[in-house]
Amino acid sequence: MRKIAQSISRACAFSFGAILVASCASPSLSSPSVSEPLVTETRRDNMFTQTIASLREAVDKRRVAGVPVPIPADPGGGYTHEQHKQNGKTVYEAGMLYELTGEIEYLDFAADILADYADLYPTLDLHPEVKPSTPSRLFWQGLNEAVWLVYVSQGYAAIRDDLSDAQRSDIETNLLRPMADFLSEGSPQTFNRIHNHGTWAAAAVGMTGYTLDDRDLVDKALYGLDKSGDAGFLKQVEELFSPDGYYAEGPYYQRYALMPFILFAQAIDRNDPDMEIFNYRDQVLVKAITATIQQSYAGKFFPINDAIREKGLSTNELRYGVAIAYDLTGEPSLLSIALQQGSVVPTPEGRAVAEAIAAGEAGPFPFKTLQLRDGPQGDRGALVILRNGSADDDAAIVFKPTSQGLGHGHFDRLGLIYYDNGDEIVADYGAARFLNVAPKNGGRYLPENTSWAKQTVAHNTLVVDQRSQFGGDWRLAEERPSEVLAFDDTPGASFAAAQITGAYDGVDVRRVVAMVDRPGGGSYVIDIVLGESDGTHTYDLPVHFKGQLIETNLPFEYSTDLLVPMGDDDGYEHLWKTAETRVVPANAHSEVSILVRDQFYTLTLATTGEATAYLTRLGANDPDNNLRNEQAMIFRTQGKSTAFASVYERHGRYDNDEEVTVFSGSSIAQIDIHEREGIYIISVSPETTNPIMVFVAKESGESSSHVVRVGQKTYKWQGPVGLFASSGPSRNDKSGGELE
Amino acid sequence: MRKIAQSISRACAFSFGAILVASCASPSLSSPSVSEPLVTETRRDNMFTQTIASLREAVDKRRVAGVPVPIPADPGGGYTHEQHKQNGKTVYEAGMLYELTGEIEYLDFAADILADYADLYPTLDLHPEVKPSTPSRLFWQGLNEAVWLVYVSQGYAAIRDDLSDAQRSDIETNLLRPMADFLSEGSPQTFNRIHNHGTWAAAAVGMTGYTLDDRDLVDKALYGLDKSGDAGFLKQVEELFSPDGYYAEGPYYQRYALMPFILFAQAIDRNDPDMEIFNYRDQVLVKAITATIQQSYAGKFFPINDAIREKGLSTNELRYGVAIAYDLTGEPSLLSIALQQGSVVPTPEGRAVAEAIAAGEAGPFPFKTLQLRDGPQGDRGALVILRNGSADDDAAIVFKPTSQGLGHGHFDRLGLIYYDNGDEIVADYGAARFLNVAPKNGGRYLPENTSWAKQTVAHNTLVVDQRSQFGGDWRLAEERPSEVLAFDDTPGASFAAAQITGAYDGVDVRRVVAMVDRPGGGSYVIDIVLGESDGTHTYDLPVHFKGQLIETNLPFEYSTDLLVPMGDDDGYEHLWKTAETRVVPANAHSEVSILVRDQFYTLTLATTGEATAYLTRLGANDPDNNLRNEQAMIFRTQGKSTAFASVYERHGRYDNDEEVTVFSGSSIAQIDIHEREGIYIISVSPETTNPIMVFVAKESGESSSHVVRVGQKTYKWQGPVGLFASSGPSRNDKSGGELE
Q1: C-beta atoms of B437 and A595 within 8 A
Q2: What confidence score (pLDDT) does residue A75 get?
Q3: What is the rounded CA–CA span in Å between residue A420 and residue A232?
Q4: How many domains does chain B have?
Q5: 3-state SS of A200-264?
């Protein structure tokens, strides 16, 4: 058991508890208490007053209790780590309170802490648990040191003018300047790196530079150590965001990376207004904030790549992001995000947000069907989001024909997530990590993050020969982004198509995902997965579903008294095989119905070849119990090529308050897949309306024209995909559409 | 796949969808949308207006669409079943709307539906899927028929005076009177049975009697078919509730049973006010309503016995219950429950609730530490609830030394559930059933309800020799209620003790559960389980925990490549054994820490004998995939007697918005268990405060005096349990307590 510094740690935990209760104003979502309406109303009237009151209470408690400044000892999640993190925030918060209230005790409090650090810092060598690649002194990695300085430099800026010369000299000479030097000249490999650690370092150094009026530090931060512009903040802005504001590592890291970008940009905007930093690259920093919001469902970020699933719109970073974006744009829809966040930041921008909300100016945030192009030039694939409405809990599909996303990327090219009704229906595991939970590998990524979470089978995308994409080599994968073939955001008939080549030798994989109006309400999610090769392969389509399996016509036989793993490697070794079917004939009509909370969902599926279906449970070969217990089904075919055509739909209702249950089952009478002259023809036939036709042409030119006759009807379209739904032809059908 | 009457069913599903959206006013809890504050405010101002508007919209839609009155064909959850259920409610709702608005179309609508039923009913023989023990015609079981008549008789009462003589005669002669006769004289085994089915039948017949001014029907309903009083409603009130308002089957069925009790009681109160029905048995019906509320956590009922876990305070039955209880008592705390329910019932009582809420009269509902005595005389054990605060998400322990709870009872005598922070920490499986979900065994109890959910190992209570209590025979179990030995509700040092004899031949089982203030905040849950016998037995203590196991010092070895079940029967056959320890020495200090949402919990445990610990996953021998996948740990000892002493505590925080993680681990330095002269002495030693001492005497007399000397201290107490916490002596320590 972890017993390091236990008595101190415990005392800390208790005071932390009080602090957090005070500073974390958002009420628990899981148990709506009767007082919630009152809280909500108060919050709406004066969120800023409440923020400041909470902050004052929290900071006052720490002031009374005294602030330990311990000798650095622990890695992430440990006592000294958390205490230093906390102290950095305390300096910031005391500074903000001084700025707002002018009360001298807050100035003194911040100054006292800084004086303690000015005593400590010069005595420190590298941290005893230092990660050698990122030198640091207060923390085990340089990243935390940069974050600390971003907070502290802001807190210091708020009190600097009212300190004595002796205080200023002590703090700047012994703490701020050496730390800024250490994070820049002393850590060139981080400081010059185009990566979120580099952005934090640049922000820390640059913001300190502005505070100390040190142009040298500022210029290094803006243009790199050699001030050439080959590194530094501007280069980071250029390289790390796509023209649509997408960040290659995905929304979890985008949220984290945003913070230094927008805080430093604010400082630049104040000190060097001529740079018009917020207009840089067609306002890409503002786009990055709204793109982050778009990459969420029911308040949580899409957990693609190495993501902690709990993170969402209420994170501290997004509270700053929303306040700054509102300051820049005055966009009323951002206010509703702030309302959802439940509190505002203690800055002038936070105050403006609270006042606008109190004035009733909030409008709904328009969640959209869109593609966020990936790559600095927007030509390295895209993250595609299809939605059937603008609310944050309307049905949504996340489709992932992106680039790799650097070292935090997963091998899930063309992966899919399906949300509906506020719930995940077909889900992504996220990262195998318990953030900062010391007993779990020091809070760092767990070994199962590599052996499971990153592997292709851990995602909802095609696995060829039970191997992960690109042989699990992310550098190789980085060279071959996905290719988006088509994107159409027509409401009621939206779709996207994409392909990957090179992920598997000699196998091309294409996927078409569509969201089409369903007769009687809601949407069909139509998912077509094609694997094509000259050689024979095994094709697995995993579906990581949520809820409870209710009914299926698949002839599953359950392993009732013995479980063994599905395979030996590439993630299969972690899957207990709980059920298996005998061979299901080609083009059979398979249905699987599940219950997720209060709604039923049915997956209707057909395959061109014979298929076997499996049910699995995660947890095999997990000697430290690091994995969550999750379920999946896997559909397997064998042959040169394969096509899976799936339709997901929501139906019925399981209402326990009214005690009404309606289970309707699939509304799809038939799914047909044919191939004719290089064109896959998929017809999805609802029981009560005309078929939905999807055509997928091998010829992927955007302007290529296609004409296909099926039965009595002729279909014409341009581009690699034609979609013809009963709700009318899709927008890409510019040349006439369905003809009798 | 279920294809019965599919096209009709689907049409029904869609219109249902619209209806439910309209009639189910409570907003989704899982995804707080930005518009929630506004909705909440509107609701608070005019919940009743909103209820009526929603009802009008829903009923109007049905009126326009037309109401099918199909030939009965389907069992529970099927189309005809749900349609008839819906129609009964429609008659009721149209009647209420007519009463409130005087608009003639609602009268006509209700009358038309009733006329259709008056045509249909005389043509019906028994239902084709009838459950032979409960004859019925519209539905597969008589219970649904009685519920239907309860609704319909109220709807009919609202329109009766304004119908033509011919209409009245048709409806009464062909439908209401024959149905009332069928449910009384035609179903004596149900009607005279002291059971919730009997209550529904009595209510249906009695309420119809009042409406038709038929004293004969009323008297049969009140006093039984022979009017002797040996059966009927009054007898039901006497037999089915304890003096504290506890219902032997538990809160899930209590909720359901409440409805006919309170609706019929209302009718009695209006028509026979001299009976003072609501004062009957010291106002037991009102007590039953508040007792039902007390048996909930964060809005959901304790899922003891055969319970559907989704049911809670927002269920329709509780909405009526709260409105009627408020009408009777004017108790402002009930208004906060109504606020939480999100809507009010369309009755004068519902209107009064809405008006009082709008007038700002709601007060918090005081959730309490209490025991709800079981049995008509209150002498058949009790359900004990310990809480560390009055909010609905403060920590709570449910301790179950009750009677069996009839056929829906589980073999979980002395079972325990632990809630905290709005979450289940140590949980009960509830029933293995998907209510009304047709593909799951017609929505009825699943075979696994018997083979798993009712078995002792499915609960958090001692299992002797891997067998269920009373050999799994509920009638035998019904003869031997638990015995409550002590109960003390002192805040900060509350506890209860109880024992069972006869559940296992030659083995007595005692359990003491205490909730004691924890230094630094929160509570320790102290749990002492004693098994005593002259022969040698195996003692298993299962802990069905939630969340993710984070850290333990138990030497678990995980089964990484092969899983087999824990046993062959009594529920063990459903448990995959995922990990097992080598033998842990007697009195070892074992710790297990878990993460549940954003909080850490640690269980610290000691046993008097050597122990082995297991981790399990539910799902073995489940050929139809009927079980949810849940985890548990099982502590096993062997010998003549055994003692398990466990302490649960919450600590630290896992805050992903602020990115703060604090994991402190157990704050218990040591747990000691000794036995001396028939007294178990358990000392629980926190690291920073004096030990908490628990004494459990074999002598169970309430007034027996005990004196024990431990080290330098002498402890004196009365009764079978003495508890000495640093926060002061407990209330039962009347004679001096801890002495130096």
Answers
A1: yes
A2: 86
A3: 41
A4: 2
A5: HHHHHHHHHHHHHCCHHHHHHHHHCCCCCCCCCHHHHHHHHECCCCCECCCHHHHHHHHHHHHHH
B703 confidence band (pLDDT: 50, 70, 90)? confident
Q: pLDDT-derived band of residue A45, with 50, 70 and 90 as boundaries?
A: low
Is A284 contained in some domain? no
Q: Taking the C-alpha atoms of B294, B298, B303 and B308 in order, what is their torsion angle to the nearest 10 degrees?
A: 120
pLDDT in tens, B17-37: 222 222 222 333 333 333 333
Domain end position, chosen among A223, A251, A275: A275
Q: Single out the residue of B670, B578, B687, B678 nearest to residue B633, CA to CA.
A: B578
CB-CB: which of A10, A316, A667 is closest to B658? Answer: A316
3-state secondary structure at position B247 = strand
Cα-atom radius of gyration of chain A, to the nearest Å?
Answer: 27
Q: Nearest-CA neighbor of B627 among B411, B418, B419, B430?
A: B430
Q: Is residue A518 part of a domain?
A: yes
Q: Are B374 and B518 found together in one domain? A: yes
Q: How far apart are CA B382 and CA B244, in angstroms?
A: 10
Instruction: With CB atoms and an 8 Å threshold, state whether A41 touches B36.
Output: no
In B, which residues are within 8 Å of A36 by CB distance? 40
For helices B251-271 and B233-240, angle between their N-to-C axes, nearest 10 degrees: 140
- Report whether B197 contacts B163 (CB < 8 A): no
Predicted model pTM: 0.91
Structure tokens at A636: 């397997």
Residue B595 to residue A437, Cβ atoms within 8 A: yes
For B138-149, b/e burial (b = at least 16 CB within 10 A) is bbbbbbbbbbbb
- For residue A654, the distance in angstroms to the closest alpha carbon of chain B comes to 8
| Domain enclosing residue A172, as ranges | 14-275
Q: Report yes or no on A350 lying in a domain.
A: no
Nearest to B663 among A24, A364, A438 (CB): A438
When CB atoms are compared, the residue of A299, A438, A651 closest to B13 is A651
Mutate to test the interface with A, among B19, B31, B602 (most CBs of A within 10 A): B31
Q: Which of A98, A252, A253, A256 is catalytic?
A: A253
Q: Is A539 a catalytic residue?
A: no
**Cβ within 8 Å, pair B82-A24:** no
